[in-house]
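If your schedule permits, I should be very grateful for your opinion on a structural question. The matter concerns a single protein, recorded as an amino acid sequence and a row of backbone structure tokens. Could you please explain, in whatever detail you think fit, how the structure tokens follow from the sequence? I set the record out below, with my sincere thanks for your time.

——
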Amino acid sequence: MPELPEVETVRRGANQVTLNREITGGDVLLDRTIAYPFSVADFLNGISGKAIAQWHRRGKYLLAELVKGSREQGAIPSCKSQVASRKSQLIPNSEFRIPNSEFLGVHLRMTGQLLWLPQDEPLHKHTRVRLFLAENWELRFVDQRTFGQMWWVPPERAVESVVTGLATLGPDPFSSDFSVEYFAAKLRDRRRPIKNALLDQSIVAGIGNIYADEALFRAGVQPQTLCADLRSPQISRLRTAILEVLEASINAGGTTFSNFLNVQGVNGNYGGVAWVYNRSGKPCRICNTPILKLRLAGRSAHFCPQCQK
């Protein structure tokens, strides 16, 4: 399942190729991919004639801010925030409510891919939605497991009222709100394994199985350690490790173990240097102790019993 680094990689790639291009139409091949509006025709009518001003990310959600295209106002405005597209940042909640703003929302879920392709490129059998842009290009949403979703948020609606999963998200790891003090307060008195807490999107948004394992390894914390048993230095180290692991994976273009591709159809490279994730039985890259794997609340967890005591 794409996690924060993979979604951030897609966001940056989309900002490089789609900004200021007008959406001229589209084709929905699987109706249930469109989560809002409930009419596919209303979805296509809503986004058509609009240009993409900027792609944002909130946790694992992508949000493209839409503006009126050339057919409606004579020229597509230049996007002053292109320089910022290389940064690992979210869109603050306050910006979701910019008056008269529209958004195209995308959630890749387990196997979703958002690809930038010529319109004459043969269709993959798992193609679900095609968004046609100027100059015969398209954004193609490919999704093998069909759990991915897309939304059109009209200007009169708050984004969280349409893309309802946003309302329950905790702070982004790269946000100033994800402070040591906040993190410690959220973990205090919780009688649950820290690995499961890191997967709780209401505590911190965007972390999944891969980067929870990797961050715990860097912090020297075993995944089954109860949150309430963590000491302040461990919590501080874990917060730092989360940021380091996410940044390293973003710089590597994300992780590809099965389905993830960036918008140009290229695999992510982080998987080849993972410390513990998906390395059960293999020697630890630090101490050569075999990596162990266990199950916590139905999810796998990988760790080194020597480095994570």
Notes: Confidence is low (pLDDT under 50) at residues 72-88.
